[in-house]
Amino acid sequence: MKFYSLSLLAAICIWTARAQQPSAVPVYLDDSQPIEKRIDDALSRMTTEEKVAICHAQSKFSSAGVKRLGIPEVWTSDGPHGIRPEVQWDKWSQAGWTNDSCVAFPALTCLAATWNPAMSLAYGHAIGEEARYRNKSVLLGPGVNICRTPLNGRNFEYMGEDPYLSSKMVVPYVQGVQSNGVASCVKHYALNNQEINRHYTNVIVDERALYEIYLPAFKAAVTEGNTWTIMGSYNLYRNQHACTNQYLLNDILKGEWQFDGAVVSDWGGVHETDQAITNGMDMEFGSWTDGLHHSKNHAYENYFLANPYLKKLASGEADIATLNDKARRVLRLIFRTAMNRNRPYGSLCSDEHYATARQIGNEGIVLLKNNGHLLPIQLTDTRKILVVGENAIKMMTVGGGSSSLKAQHEISPLQGIQDLVGSQAEVVYARGYVGDTNGDYNGVTTGQNLSDKRTARQLADEAIAAARQADIVIFFGGLNKSKHQDCEDADRLSLQLPYGQDSLITALQEANSHLVVVNISGSGVAMPWVKKVPAILQAWYLGSEAGHSIADILFGKCNPSGKLPVTFPARLEDVGAHALGEYPGVERTDGSQIFDEKYNEGIYVGYRWFDKQHIAPLFAFGHGLSYTTFRFGKATANKKIMTTDSDITFSIDVTNTGKCAGAEVVQLYISDKKCSVDRPEKELKGFQKIHLAPGETKTVQLTINKDALSFFDTQSHQWIAEPGTFTAHIGAASNDIKSSIDFILE
Ligand code: GLC
Fold first, then answer.
1. Nearest residue CA, atom 9 of ligand 1?
2. Is the whole-model pTM more than 0.85?
3. Which of 165, 251, 425, 575 is deepest in the core (most CB within 10 A)?
4. Torsion 122-542-144-700 (CA) sign
5. Upstream peptide bond of 584 is cis (omega within 30 degrees of 0)
6. Which residues form ligand 1's pocket by a CB distance below 6 Å?
């Protein structure tokens, strides 16, 4: 007993001594402390120089930490579709690492085309795991700029033309990425809707279109997704660069939306110190000095938020309170990421990530047309398959700008078809045309030699002759990631397919009517042959598993369920931005090199314009077929009259009336029958993707509240739903409404 009590007494003494000893761990390093307390403590320990240092780049893709305090650096990485290979400290060129190959996930237009937020969550989680494994704290994506013109070179990186669809698809992506302790960086905020003159275009857009069309996806990413960073864009708005814009950054983002994260500049998007200090910029990135011009004299120290900022602080021209706010936001980012000891460890190139990429591709491919049920191809009665086109073999994960990747592998469409068909049929390939033989981006090379000595005539003749001998012809065309196609820093020059594809497609169809055209692009293309070609697939850029996804759909291993997130116009002049707009902008005559561009179509972007003008699109927003058929019942509502503080729920039965399982996207559009302002004929305000077995019926319920009835009133600067009669349209596409029902807002 004596021994026992002595040891207990000793234990109590030690415990008491420890409890009284001040914690050896400073608050900012103590995980048990709330982040805001840790920030206060860290800030109190930092010098002015250290606070300024964390507000600008120290290298191409990193900003400084605080060495002395053990606060880590912030490492960022492109991009929205996969983790960019490592580049040199100061240059875009490759660092030459051999451990930085990645999974290339499908481009975000494909993700949007799934109309399935669960796919966004899976996407964000997987790409976030890759970023985490590569020790990146910020993923420079996703992009959610609205597709205002099909010519925009970066449409493939974004989520389409509709603010509601983009809003619903971006939130889970952000949450998925950040579940890894990696910040998403939603871009490019805001109004970066073209690549031509992207550094010099001053966008002039009415406030209603700004709030109803161009801001919603960013607002959702901030207020619902809680994105930890956001990237300012290159263009100007109200004559201020978006990266240093009082209205966009301070009034809206940090004011109205209460954004608590850090604003990251696009690379070289900051042009002036005073505005960078006062107008909400927190982390200035770029390459060399002001991000645009090459100078080796202490490049990063010459940044606008570097030595020039320090000078203004020293002279009293800049106040320490503003600096503290910037430093707080950067520290909050660091505590949420690099100093979050509870975050997972990530993974790279895992089977799960490849499976996610393939599933998103399978769900995002859109069956545009399938006359005579040419698809799915039945191998039981197919002996010879001819595959034609450069896009059947060309790697698409290299090029296109900052989203370019060093994929661990990329299955081409031809390879995917060969893998699936095996010895069940003969697969023959004909190039058909030569487009872009380049295979190098910033030193990442595809390893493909696409050069070809044959003339265009020889290539076409060879393909046409082979078509006559085949049971079915599959043509892979569309665009690629070269300049003036789906590529950053330049726009497309027309809606037409390049490289003479249209005449080749027409000739192939004449040679063999069993022709499938698979279009690979980031937005709509003209299809003058659309009436002659029985089957058309929109296959987007699908990344590492491209060939497997396309083959899964072509041969019916997967039933297509994608729906267009953008309108495919028949002609460029059918698009609001080109019918009314000043695209690409009018250069000022004051030598400033600035282009003013009025968005004259206002809120009438995409299907909103086609509805208003009663123009028939080539293929409509929300369009997508299936290998099965669906029957929609009659829409009902749980009430006839709703109030501004209540919901209303619409129900509709959907039955799979075909022979194979499939998925349908039930879409809800709302019309305001009478309003004090002009409103679109209808606007997407709800959707749900449902999977049905043959013969199965499900009741789909879509609930909305007054937000879905509101327009942005620029006088009162708030959203308003005017009482009156509204109509709910429920359908399988914006031009395929199955049932409508009126209801009243009291
Ligand atoms: C580029 C792009 C941006 C990218 C950044 C870093 O100019 O506009 O999307 O994340 O610079 O590469």
1. 402
2. yes
3. 575
4. negative
5. yes
6. 78-79, 140, 187, 266-267, 402
